[in-house]
Amino acid sequence: MKCLIVKRIEELPIRVTGAVEGQILIDMKVTTAKYTHVRAFDDESFRPLIQNSSELIIVVNSEGLVRYASPSAEKLTGRLPADISGKKLLDFVHRDDQRATAEAINAVLQSPQLKIDYVLKFKHIDGSWVNLETVWCNHIGSNRVNGIVINCRDVSYLKSLEDEAGKYRQLRNITENVKDITYSVDSGGTITYISSQISRYGLEPENVIGMRIIDFVISEDRAKVVNDFEKSISTGTYEEPTQFRHKSPDGSIKWFEEHGKIQKDANGKVIGIVGVIRDVTSRKEVEDEMTSAMDFLHNVLNALDDPFFVKNEDHQWILLNDKICELMGYSREELIGKSDYDLFPKEQAEIFWAKDDEVLRTGKTDLNIEQIAWRGSTRTIATKKSLFIDPVNGRKFIVGVIRDISAADQSMNHFSEPKS
Fold first, then answer.
1. Which residues, including other chains, have CB under 8 Å from residue 276's CB and lie 6 or more apart?
2. Do 140 and 62 contact (CB within 8 A), yes or no?
3. Four-CA torsion 341, 342, 344, 346, nearest 10 degrees
């Protein structure tokens, strides 16, 4: 080790070159050497330590001017140490962190024993920002350093993980405050996550996680659920929602509708499904009531001796009883959605269409006796058409009743209004 005697160290130009045991090593070019002891270290003794260190060491003076940057600057920031030295530290710091950086310099200057630890964004040579975790120590006045030492560690990866974790927490907070149940299952059908909403049905998340998805489904619906799940996993596509029933611990049956999305790994391999499960019990009850009501309506209409129909504003049949299907010789499925032009000659269809338009326009009931050519014969029918307006949406419909009077020579006076 070489030793020099100088009188005033602050008069010497100093180049900081490394660190040993937490201390910055310095190499001094002596211009005035008198009575103060100062060590000058051989670069070769510490260069391997500094060059192989993953941490960046920066030394700044009291004005924030960079006096030294270790060789790892190039690895972390893409910049050579010489490109950083001699410039203001704030020139490389993101504007969002510049105020905190300036405050850190002032704080350590005012309190030499203070150590500051915080993360700042340092500009990479390619224009991106590197997240550096920094520890600041005041060594101004030290014979060996005479500057503020900043140890920097690249925590960009950790920062990205924190950001992702923050997004996950935010997403989880959202999912925990919605009505639907959120879930995830692996490719084998095992539940890997389920939100707290499941507790509304007498189950706790920690008890559900690890269950198979089919354990949540009543036996009558399991085959369909398994088939839909295996099809989604094998094809890598999720086509439509799956409905199933679940029996709660209290014995009640709930209807659920599951909407999912296929999850794949970086190689494109299917690893599971994530999605939401919605309680549709109330909707199913309404649907069942509507189905029952429609069945009742159809039964009533089919009990009529006269053909009955309903048309929409586009002149399409939307409701028919059995008698009109018998009259026309077509099934209900063949007639629904059709219009007069699909079944009758153009001349007759035009007459029927005009009568429909008059009812839709005026709202007046139309009574008419007419002859139609039907399957090689001429038939006489009496038709009554009335207007119905949906009170909910204002849509208009034509409600019609037909009586075949071909068997007898009857007139409009003999037409008796059917009861419906």
1. 180, 181, 182, 183, 258, 259
2. yes
3. 40
Residue 393, classified by CB atoms within 10 Å of its CB into exposed (0-12), middle (13-18) or buried (19+), is exposed
Residue 360 contacts residue 386 (beta carbons within 8 Å): no
Q: Which two tokens stand for residue 180?
A: 């639907």
Buried b (16+ CB within 10 A) or exposed e, 1-35: eeeeebeebeebebebbbbeeeebbbbbeeeeeee
> What is the DSSP annotation of 305-352?
SS-EEEE-TTS-EEEE-HHHHHHHT--HHHHTT--GGGTS-HHHHHHH
CB atoms within 10 A of CB 295: 10
The CATH superfamily holding the domain 291-414 is PAS domain (3.30.450.20)
Tens digit of each residue's pLDDT (9 = 90 or more) over 67-117? 999 988 998 999 999 999 999 999 999 999 999 999 999 999 998 888 888
**3-class secondary-structure state, position 91:** helix
Collapse the DSSP code of 102 into the 3-class scheme (helix H, G, I; strand E, B; otherwise coil) and give the result: helix
pTM higher than 0.85, yes or no?
Answer: no
The amino acid at residue 293 is A
| CATH 3.30.450.20 placement within the chain | 2-159, 179-279, 291-414
- As a CATH number, domain 2-159 is 3.30.450.20
Question: 24-78: per-residue pLDDT in tens?
Answer: 444 443 333 333 333 333 344 445 555 556 688 999 999 999 999 998 899 899 9
Which CATH number is 179-279 given?
3.30.450.20
